[in-house]
Amino acid sequence: LVDVIGLCKRAKTRGLKIMIRFHYSDTWADSGSQTIPSKWTDHSVEALEKKVYEHTYDVLKALYDLDIHPRWVAIGNETKYGMLYDVGKTKSTEGYKNFTRFINSAYQAIQDVDPSMLAVIHLPNAHDEKTARNMFDQLQKYGAKYDVIGLSAYPKWSHLDVTTDAAIKSTINTYMTTFKNLKARFKKPVMVVETGHYVDQP
Hints:
202 residues; alpha/beta; 5 helices; 13% strand
């Protein structure tokens, strides 16, 4: 938290808008790894739901009390298969329901600190409309609360062709189609929340 506060102070000083992304893990979380924090020893859904609320609230309230107001709060990082594995892993109906409960717990914490902050659900692979559509269909089915669809767009690491101008244009068109279709289907704004490319290439 000390590190987060320091970085947020630097960002605020420079007039930057801030996104806080909660990993809910002792280590980096992504679609391959969403390990429950070691101190969250009770892995019941109810206990994890409570921990998600408390951690989200405590961090955001600490920032709020310093007059730091993140614009966006991402509930999890690249949650392609949910979070807090295996309880919240979306390989079953129960997993989707649990993931939704965790999302809604975090969403309530965000609302309780500052309702103007926008809650983001963040998935990888912005070119993969089918996977994103399925996830947000399921979240809608089980009543997940969020404000923004967030996507990672890494053409090179997603093995998309960016070797020529024509290929780059095609890749961007794929992304834009995904963004427009998801926005139309779920009536939510869509954000690219991560992107990158090799530093030695244009």
